[in-house]
Design brief:
Blueprint: E1 3-10, H1 16-32, H2 37-47, E2 58-66, E3 69-76, E4 87-94, H3 100-111, H4 115-120, H5 125-138
Antiparallel strand pairs: 1-4, 2-3, 3-4
Helix pairs in contact: 1-2
């Protein structure tokens, strides 16, 4: 099983909602094409410009595979329709354990966008602590 941490370094002053949608599109594309950057690029290029993701803010995309991870730059337009600040994203491959517990934790972490979402799950305190520690190591 392959899993990635999605880290957005430069956010280009985009809303948290749009950044969450960008993370989700990247995560979904990596689920389909976890090892091939040549397939990842067209998948992202067709999904990111959709109106419910980035819409008119999206300009173009660059994807580079570095080892087993990906470096992604998303060029944007600003409010005036001029060249905006790019969004810089790292998709860093994570090692997944072979136990059921490790696989479950990895799956949950792969679908959440931050520490505040861990608290919303209503997990038992010991499991919540483990998830918080795992998110701390991820960032």
């Amino acid at each position: 099983m392959v899993s990635f941490s999605i880290c957005i370094d430069l956010t280009c002053n985009l809303s948290e909602d749009m950044l969450s949608k960008i993370r989700q599109v990247i995560r979904d594309s990596l689920d389909l094409h976890p090892v091939d950057g040549h397939l990842l690029l067209p998948s992202l290029a067709s999904s990111l410009p959709l109106p419910h993701v980035m819409g008119p803010v999206y300009r173009y995309l660059w994807v580079d595979k570095i080892g087993h991870s990906f470096f992604i730059i998303i060029a944007t337009f600003n409010e005036e329709g001029k060249e905006g600040v790019p969004v810089v994203v790292w998709a860093i491959r994570r090692k997944v354990g072979h136990t059921l517990s490790a696989i479950c934790m990895n799956t949950i972490m792969g679908r959440l966008n931050g520490l505040e979402e861990v608290k919303k799950l209503g997990l038992p305190k010991t499991l919540e602590k483990d998830m918080m520690k795992a998110f701390g190591r991820q960032s």
